[in-house]
Amino acid sequence: xxxxxxxxxxxxxxxxxxxxxxxxxxxxxxxxxxxxxxxxxxxxxxxxxxxxxxxxxxxxxxxxxxxxxxxxxxxxxxxxxxxxxxxxxxxxxxxxxxxxxxxxxxxxxxxxxxxxxxxxxxxxxxxxxxxxxxxxxxxxxxxxxxxxxxxxxxxxxxxxxxxxxxxxxxxxxxxxxxxxxxxxxxxxxxxxxxxxxxxxxxxxxxxxxxxxxxxxxxxxxxxxxxxxxxxxxxxxxxxxxxxxxxxxxxxxxxxxxxxxxxxxxxxxxxxxxxxxxxxxxxxxxxxxxxxxxxxxxxxxxxxxxxxxxxxxxxxxxxxxxxxxxxxxxxxxxxxxxxxxxxxxxxxxxxxxxxx
Length: 355
Prior knowledge:
Distance between the termini: 33 Å
Structural class: alpha/beta
CATH class of the largest domain: Alpha Beta
Shape: globular
Oligomer: single chain
Order of helices and strands: EEEHEHEHEHEEHEHEHHEHEHEE
CATH architecture of the largest domain: 3-Layer(aba) Sandwich
């Protein structure tokens, strides 16, 4: 056991989820799992930044609607993105007018927000929370790499920032003491199985010494492995207790590095091949030129809120450990000779039988 892992006694429920992606993501292997796919990556807006905020707001409003709730019934909104001052989330929060906690965990933000929503709802501090995150290729790439107008060619190890967003509505019901009902926590999902948050583990910052921003997957891999092993220790589970252990943003290169470190830690090749997947390798077809896959807050947010959530809801997955990984660099730190630290946060979800 360790102090990094939270065990949620009251098992808050993810009562709805919504995902939205751009055109390229909507043409990839995950296309049938997303709720909304735009043919225009501007989403009808005048700037890329406004487009990302609009996309995020759309997923939040859709998730709230699916939950059968109104904005006034949401106690807290937890969100973040990759832009300066998390502007996509902040401007979205300005529009929806829900009490807001802005988060920055780089690409780890989606599970960071889910972990905190679990703590707030399980602890009885609020009834209902929304967790969400977003990224956009045209906003993040020009902020962290090079202006789009350069038309530069990516090296094989460099991932592509996903244009995507995801939102989940989490309900816990404050406490049995509030209404003396024995089933106070049994908020039913609108369709399929109940999907509950059973545990979460907070990450540590790891720095493998990588300085190249084209190697973010490898930079984040040690933090991902540390989180997996810490969560297994904190819950007393093994690799085989999960139908899937899914990272968010490592891509093909980072996943390979993580798999190698897991092997050194004693996880078998068979376990890794059967259980370990990464959203960055799922969202794009490598044959379409995405040599190292995807990354960005919206990568895990859209795949978690689309594919993983629906697989749990329909019972095809029973227990999943989801973790998003983040590269904790700034727009100027690489130019100051700094290395790229990585972090990961993990959330465990379970499917609870048929309604």
